[in-house]
Specification:
B: 372 residues, Cytochrome-c3 Hydrogenase, chain B, 3-stranded antiparallel beta sheet, 15 helices, globular, C: mainly alpha
Chain lengths: 157, 372, 334
Amino acid sequence: MSLEDLKEKLSKVVEPGDMVPRDYEKDGCLLEIKARADQVEAVAKAAREADCFLESITAVDFTNGPQIIYQFNSCTIVSRVLVRVQLSRGESVVSIGSIYDAALWYEREVFELFGIRFDNHPDLRRLLLPEDADFYPLLKDYGKVHAFRSTEEIYGE
Amino acid sequence: MANEFLEPITEQTFYLNMGPQHPSTHGVLRLFLKLDGEYIVEADPVIGYGHRGHEKMAESHLYEQFLPNSSRMDYLAGLIFNHGYVAAIEKMAGIEVPPRAEYIRVICAELNRISSHLLWFGTYVMDLGGFTPFLYSFDDRENILDILDRVSGSRLTYSYCRFGGVARDVDDEFITATHQFVERLRSRWDDYHNLVTKNVIFIHRAKDVGVINRELALRFGCTGPILRAAGVPYDVRKAEPYSVYSELDFEIPTGTKGDALDRYLVRVQEMEQSLHIIEQALERLPDGAIKAAVPHKVRPPRGDYYFAVESARGAVGFYIVSDGTSYPYRLKARVPSYGNLQVLTEVLPGTLVADTISILGSIDIVVPEVDR
Amino acid sequence: MAAWQNLVNFLGPDLARIVVGVVGVLALVQVNALFLVWLERKVAAHIQLRIGPKEVGPFGILQSIVDGIKLVGKELITPRHADRKLFMLAPIAVFLPVLVSFVVIPFSERLLIRDMNVGVLLIFAFSTFNVLAVLVGGWASNNKYSLLGAVRAVAQNVAYEIPLLLAVLSVVMWSNSLQMSEIVASQSKVWHVFSMPVATLIFLICATAETNRAPFDIPEAESELVAGFHTEYSGMRFALFFLAEYSNMLIVSAVATTLFFGGWKSPPFLGFLPVPGLIWFFAKTYALIFVTIWVRWTFPRLRFDQLMNFCWKIMIPAALLHLVVYAGIIKIVR
């Protein structure tokens, strides 16, 4: 399996305009994909068929809503792919726990730190925080942060 | 009036809580087990007892101020986390690191890897009931800690790397001491092999126990010795070479079956490979500066970056979103023990309670890394 | 009338002998426990490349006494829903039967409290009480870990008694008597360890399992069940369990010495040395105890099902085969 293979599978799911090649030497990833919340499952299935493993799921909070970042990589040749999904506050996204078991804990963590709900997650309870916590710590309006910006200020679009 | 009969008692299972205070879970980990006699039916690791909020702390501190935090996430491989964090910022900001500093970083990172594996070795066999190898391995580990203490100032949580290089230079005594340590550890392998690897009881406790094959490991995103024991030669030092690893010659030990014995053998062989790397690096250590000139408050350009290193437990990654100021906008540490621990929910059911200890020990989890 | 006479005769020198003997044995057991605690710590330390206790007294000899004083001063905690009476009974019950077994051990040619003609039977009958006391202790603690430990201990002890007794049966057949002094006398030419080495090996392995010592120490596996069946015991009650374990080690080594290593007899080629039998007896017993301690600190622990498999599938057939073979040999030789 190669990066071309993965690109080909992903191009069936997202528009070519949403697939942006990145400079590996500078950024550490080879490909960046902007996806919508409803395309997440298809992208994950494509990555699974291309024999990639889920490296991490994380999220970043912006003024125009939180953004989830899925990271896929392969153990045969480096092919790190970042999948960015921009959401608005309160929007939920489908869980990919049925495709990658690793996603179960990552999604629990994203839920408890950002408040993003994952539909069809079998067991969406808090992982790191106490069960009765009612706050989402990594949102930018909680606690002490240095800046709260929008995606345009950081990525320029 | 019908006769009412009691429901027959069909539920024979009971719940056992292993931890958070338990001699074998090595950190505050709670394993919530549902047992049927001695067999495990369900296992649920409960974590979060050590959540300190490193990622939130990063958002209100300078990049330089976060440096000590990086080694406290995984305190056993603190230098490797340090290296990863510092190298991520250097890549973002385009800082060139002088070759002497790179070699020094590699030597110290490999020493750190050996000390982490030695601690794992001692505690794994101790959990299985053999108390003696624990003290032998700690004796060796003391040597490493003394060497690193001289040059970095701390024994466990190092903040030795700086942006652009390392904090202090190494002197001849460091080099001699490291050479002596390499000789000494090589001469001890026979002791360890006779005492543990060839011991029939140990082999019975570790062989065919906790088999994690390639498919299971990849489903859960396990990296490191677990994946290598399953037969996949994935090592970040070879797959995505960083620092000077591309100039050094070493092998990736792999296993075949993915049981606890394979994981044990992979780690022991990794220690030997690390010794090989240290020898080569010591030979090639160039002269020169140990730190590049770097602005007082580092200000990487806007955007997001990811950098991966190979820690003792697997692939560690730092994902940093920068907004152009000297404070990170978001910092996420991708830790290997996350996937490694999660695989327990699938591996434990069907095994005996005594095997839990063996499997948990062979996976080598450091709980503060999971909790961050 | 004759019964009355017998009773009056008994109340004289016989009773005095038993009382003095039991007091002596009590003293021996206490001193032995103190000594063994120190010995174990020193031997363990040297195997692990350290020194062990050295501060308290020369070579740390007084360490055990100081530890004992510390344990006496601790609070005796009883868990809330534990069965109080059984909880307090267990440590006592685990310790007393050992004292009884000492009554028939021949320490030397004439130092024998009671030379019963069923001495061997008495020893092994009383050693099984240990199992009951462990089960009572684990159950009464109202703690899942303790119960798991106690259940494992019962299974292990009951299983390993069978090959133990079969090995002893071989010795009894060879010596033609259950009396301890007769068994020692039958070793005047050749010790049983040389005439039946397999039985010796089986006995020593099963004895290690009976006393719950590594590599068979699952019931008190420190790293798996916190402390097994004595998790909930604190202070002097815990000290009693420890005392019982060391006394068990002593009695088992003493029995092994008597049955297999010639008891108080000196080795045939060293018979000219003016060393009393008592010294030989203690030298051999403590050599066996040293080997037990050595084994403990070298090997990891067996998993429970591997332990039971080993007993039922390897030890018992071996012991049975040995018995049959030696029965044949005895028939041919005598």
